[in-house]
Amino acid sequence: MAADDIPNEALPAHSVAEAYLYLQFASCGKCGKSPLQADGQLTRGKQFFELPARCKSCRDATMLVFDIQPEPSRQSAQSKVINATSEPSQLIDVHGWLAMFQQIISASGREQDAVASRELVEEAAACLDEALKFYRDDSEIPSPDAFFTDAGRASFRKSPERYTRATWMRRRLQLPVDPPALPMAATSDKRWWQFWR
Ligand SMILES: [Zn+2]
């Protein structure tokens, strides 16, 4: 695909993992529904990274274009680390991260295999850590710009109490997973976001 054909501006992502997770929240340009699913591999284009995707509902094909910073290496592209910075995501809002946390933690409870279950708990914790980045200066509610999707804004208007920081901090402390430190090297070849495909 030539650069001129790219319909949208590049989407800002912190990692390859975050770019793939965004598929859950991206909406179809044709029918407006979410999610999209990957329809090929993420590849480096001239300037940005390109991921062919397809609408799960109407099957319309599109090309998502990501500006991934820091630039992914072969190793970091395999890593589970979603965002090694303290900046909140610009792709998935606080509502999206909390929804993913709840889905994955439920899946971990249903998983029979102990190792797989533990991996899901770690993935859920990573989503919750991303959500917590939206609480600036330990504020009890997320900053207003933490809700940048229609679904997020609607959810906050309906149940603002759902977004109390103390609730999610408590939940985070219950998880048997250390808080994030420095970026980790990939520990396996499994790309955990494939869970979502
Ligand atoms: Zn569609």
What key attributes describe this structure?
binds zinc ion, 2 domains, disordered N terminus, alpha+beta, about 10% strand, about 200 residues, 6 helices, globular
Q: How is the secondary structure organized here?
A:
Layout: E1 11-13, H1 16-21, E2 36-38, E3 43-44, E4 49-55, E5 61-68, H2 74-78, H3 94-110, H4 114-132, H5 150-158, H6 165-174
Parallel strand pairs: 1-5
Antiparallel strand pairs: 2-4, 3-4, 4-5
Helix pairs in contact: 3-4, 4-6
Zinc ion binds next to loops.
Q: Quick recap of the structure?
A:
The protein is an alpha+beta fold and 197 residues long. It has helices at 16-21, 74-78, 94-110, 114-132, 150-158, 165-174, and strands spanning 11-13, 36-38, 43-44, 49-55, 61-68. The chain is built from six helices and five strands; from the N terminus they run βαββββααααα.
Walkthrough of the structure:
The protein has 197 residues and is of the alpha+beta class. It has two domains: 8-78, no CATH class; 94-175, no CATH class. It has helices at 16-21, 74-78, 94-110, 114-132, 150-158, 165-174; strands at 11-13, 36-38, 43-44, 49-55, 61-68. Strand 4 (49-55) and strand 5 (61-68) form a beta hairpin. The two termini are 23 Å apart. Bound molecules: zinc ion. Residues 28, 30-31, 33, 55, 57-58, 60 line the site of zinc ion. Zinc ion binds next to loops.
